[in-house]
Design a protein that fits this description.
With 231 residues, this protein is α+β, with helices and mostly antiparallel strands. The chain has two domains: 80 residues; 149 residues, Histidine kinase-like ATPase, C-terminal domain (Heat Shock Protein 90). It contains six helices and nine strands; from the N terminus they run ααβαββαββααββββ. It has a five-stranded mixed beta sheet with strand order 2-4-5-9-8. α1 runs antiparallel to α2. The chain starts with 10 loop residues before the first helix and ends with a strand.
């Protein structure tokens, strides 16, 4: 397709611009949902349930839109990250603050086990986005308990999110190691979230060490275990 000036329209750039606009509108919608939730009485369980569902779905949409933007940028110039000093405790606190109004409503007990004084150089926005996507899914599939752990091991920063749900299905465990070209759509799952998580992790590197993710079942709660390792 050509514009009136005769130049070809770069559809991918137009799409990226449209996604950016949609994300801005979605952010406003999320703020409205959270503000409305704060005004609703805890006794109004029907409205609370509706708002909890709206919060979950809007969070999924927001993550998906950011993933599309980031993958577009990755195609243009590799996935750009902006590393700075990050206090891991603050990263976790800010992430949980977003969802604190929904843990109790969904009858989920959320526990945090973290080593004190963890400080790393990383892209806080991208890592938060990655972990937030995993946390939202853990909230969906967990039955009553969630656990986030953060510690250092052999020079790696390890952050894991566990739940007491049914665990990852076999095809999802296998998809965690697939390249994007091998990912197919089946049963509503594209594997895009896992590919995106791997891309964020791998973009963090120190010498020959590159970040990585791992999916498993079992752990301390018996359900799914997502682990992020950053050098």
């Amino acid at each position: 397709m050509a514009s009136q000036s005769g130049q070809l329209i770069d559809f991918s750039t137009v799409l990226a611009s449209a996604v950016h606009d949609m994300k801005s509108s979605l952010n406003l919608l999320q703020q409205s949902i959270d503000s409305l939730n704060a005004t609703v009485s805890d006794e109004d369980t029907k409205t609370k349930t509706f708002l909890s569902t709206a919060h979950y779905e809007s969070a999924r949409l927001n993550t998906g839109l950011v993933q599309l933007l980031s993958l577009y940028r990755a195609e243009m110039e590799n996935l750009p990250i902006h590393e700075d000093e990050c206090h891991i405790e603050d990263l976790i606190d800010n992430m949980l603050l977003t969802h604190q109004g929904y843990f109790g409503h969904k009858n989920l007990t959320f526990s945090v086990e973290q080593a004190p004084g963890l400080v790393r150089y990383l892209d806080e926005q991208m890592v938060t986005l990655l972990l937030n996507d995993i946390l939202v899914n853990a909230m969906r599939y967990g039955q009553s308990r969630l656990l986030l752990s953060a510690y250092e091991q052999d020079g790696w920063l390890i952050i894991s999110i566990e739940d007491d749900g049914p665990g990852y299905p076999k095809d999802m465990l296998q998809a965690s190691s697939l390249d994007m070209r091998d990912i197919v759509i089946r049963e509503g799952r594209t594997g895009l979230g896992l590919f995106f998580a791997r891309a964020i992790a791998a973009a963090h590197h120190r010498g020959e060490r590159k970040g990585e993710i791992n999916l498993s079942n079992g752990g301390k709660l018996g359900g799914s275990v997502f682990t992020l390792k950053l050098p």
